[in-house]
Specification:
- The structure is a single chain.
- By secondary structure, the chain is α+β, with helices and mostly antiparallel strands.
- The protein is built from 2 helices and 3 strands; from the N terminus they run βββαα.
- It has helices spanning 55-59, 66-74, and strands at residues 3-8, 14-18, 37-41.
- The protein has a 3-stranded antiparallel sheet, with no helix packed on it.
- A hairpin with a 5-residue loop joins β1 (3-8) and β2 (14-18).
- The longest helix is centred in the C-terminal third of the chain and has 9 residues, at 66-74.
- The chain is elongated, with a radius of gyration of 21 Å.
- The relative contact order is 0.19.
Length: 82
């Protein structure tokens, strides 16, 4: 789900909310309770990939054997020996 930033025109309160792309934008400010919120692009968390089948959750860190990952931290990975 994407993160959207909201800005209240009345009290200048700002907040970020994770919402579905198809969700209706919020209108009521949680601080001053006026219908003066404006939705803009958020910059916080971005998209969350939950479950399996996504590169970022399944394959991103599996390209290197686990013993190489530990050795790589010390700068002595046997896989990179030339």
């Amino acid at each position: 789900m994407p993160t959207y930033g909201y800005h209240c025109q009345q009290c200048k309160h700002t907040l970020e909310v994770m919402q579905s792309i198809t969700a209706e934008p919020l209108r009521s400010c949680p601080q001053c309770h006026q219908d003066s919120l404006i939705r803009g692009p958020g910059g916080g968390l971005g998209l969350h990939f939950k479950g399996s089948g996504f590169y970022i959750t399944d394959y991103k860190n599996s390209s290197q054997p686990s013993e190489c990952k530990a050795a790589d931290k010390n700068g002595c990975c046997p896989c990179k020996a030339s």
